[in-house]
Design goal:
Elements: H1 4-13, H2 19-28, H3 44-62, H4 65-90
Length: 91
């Protein structure tokens, strides 16, 4: 005797559309409905900004002066490349 799982595997293996009718019956043609309302967190951006500032401050304290100067230098270099790229693409 075949178990239900084996029977299902056989139907799937034969190419039978096993899930289509189930999806139609239980999901698409289902008359039950649920309404979900999502409300934005008005303070989320401010909270995330504060967390980011605290994390960056903690990282900055761990840097030695040479590392901090390298970060400043590479940031300035990046800004210059971005301005250069922007002026070339808009000209």
């Amino acid at each position: 005797m075949l178990t239900a799982g084996c029977a299902m595997q056989g139907r799937i293996a034969s190419g039978e559309d096993v899930f289509g009718p189930l999806i139609e019956k239980y999901l698409l043609a289902n008359k039950h409905r649920v309404t979900v309302e999502l409300l934005p967190d008005q303070q989320l951006a401010a909270k995330e900004d504060e967390e980011e500032k605290a994390e960056l401050a903690a990282l900055k304290q761990k840097l030695v002066d040479a590392e901090l100067q390298e970060v400043i230098r590479s940031t300035q270099e990046l800004k210059e490349r971005q301005v250069s790229t922007f002026t070339h693409t808009t000209a």
